[in-house]
């Protein structure tokens, strides 16, 4: 029987440092200019790493997790810009479907389709989705949320009653900073919940290797020129805390 080993990724150290600190019996391995942390969380073997930003960086990192550390499932956690108008800062989106919005090999292949794979949409694992849903719903219980994030920080980032959403996450090597970019994406994928720069690349690699995965994103901004949140501070004080609590509640 294959031993269960959970890979946990984020793009930035601020998104994943808290999870690294959960590891017991921690060891470090430096491969490809990245540091992989192995150990156990609640007696479950895990490998934690931050990939750096972008599709190539994240694809290289998850490939190493699969080939060198033999992970059997993958959790990716971090921040994203909101596309759907109902999303607010502090909400969480679980990516049930992932697409690379900047993939275009037409006319050889249909726009957005990954060449030679015949797919444009990659789906997260249904069991992992349910596990994350349960964890997030527990965290968002009002009393629990105030135990892990200070009232001052919740007020500062205008987080009152954060909500959980599921749906399409779009990924690409492009930082969204104005409404025109959002409108262009929505014209192709009106169901998009949020946008980021790694998830769909990780999803493709996991699909090709047969590794179950789930992509979790905390909404940090509106992906346009009106975004005013201090990104680094939000990541440390909110997104990082969400990641810690989600992992703790999944791995019991």
From TrEMBL:
Enzyme class label: hydrolase
Listed GO CC annotations: cytosol
GO terms assigned for molecular function: adenosylhomocysteine nucleosidase activity; methylthioadenosine nucleosidase activity
Enzyme Commission number(s) of this protein: 3.2.2.9
Metabolic or biological pathway: Amino-acid biosynthesis; L-methionine biosynthesis via salvage pathway; S-methyl-5-thio-alpha-D-ribose 1-phosphate from S-methyl-5'-thioadenosine (hydrolase route): step 1/2
InterPro entries reported for this sequence: MTA_SAH_Nsdase, Nucleoside_phosphorylase_d, Nucleoside_phosphorylase_sf
GO biological process: L-methionine salvage from methylthioadenosine; L-methionine salvage from S-adenosylmethionine; nucleoside catabolic process
PANTHER family associated with the record: 5'-METHYLTHIOADENOSINE/S-ADENOSYLHOMOCYSTEINE NUCLEOSIDASE (PTHR46832), 5'-METHYLTHIOADENOSINE_S-ADENOSYLHOMOCYSTEINE NUCLEOSIDASE (PTHR46832:SF1)
Protein name per the record: adenosylhomocysteine nucleosidase
Species name: Faecalibacter rhinopitheci
